[in-house]
Every structure is written in C-alpha cells, then in structure tokens.
Amino acid sequence: MHKVNIHQAKTNLSSLLLEVEKKGVPIRICRNGKAVAELRPLPKRKNPLRLNPKLRAKLKENPVLPLDKEDWPDLE
In Å, what is the CA distance from 50 to each residue of 3, 9, 59? Predict the structure, then answer.
C-alpha cells in the first residue's frame, strides 16, 4: 500500500487516481503521519444480463414489458 501526505495528494490527485485505477492498489492519505483517508478502486459491477440467462431471455422477448418479481436475479 502506497502512502502520501495531504499536500502530495492535492498536487497529484489525477496521477494517484490513475495509479489506483491501473494497478488496483489502494493509496492512503496521511496527515502528520496518520492515515485519514484511502483511495481504492471500486468493485467491478456484475451485469445481471450476462449472469442470468432467464433474465436475458425475458428481455429478448419484449424489452419494453415490465418484469415480474421472480424474473429479477439475486444480485448478492
């Protein structure tokens, strides 16, 4: 894990975000040597259409019609 002070974080925010995005490693932002915040990548979102063939088939039938409650996948 990479640590930077607040001044470095303000000055280099764009490059720090790029590093987090590319490498996926969190960066801690410190004040007086103590961590106060952390930049970390967001978890990748799952696409329910790719994961659930039942839902994908239902939407192919008529994507304008509302789905029934049992058609929605469990997204946990």
Answer: 37, 38, 12
pLDDT tens digits, 11-44: 999 999 999 999 999 999 999 999 999 999 988 8
**Nearest-angstrom CA–CA distance, 19 and 6:** 17
Domains of the chain, start order: 2-39 (3.40.1620)
Question: How does 47-61 read in b/e, with b if 16+ C-beta sit within 10 Å?
Answer: eeeeebeebeebeee
What pTM was computed for the model? 0.57
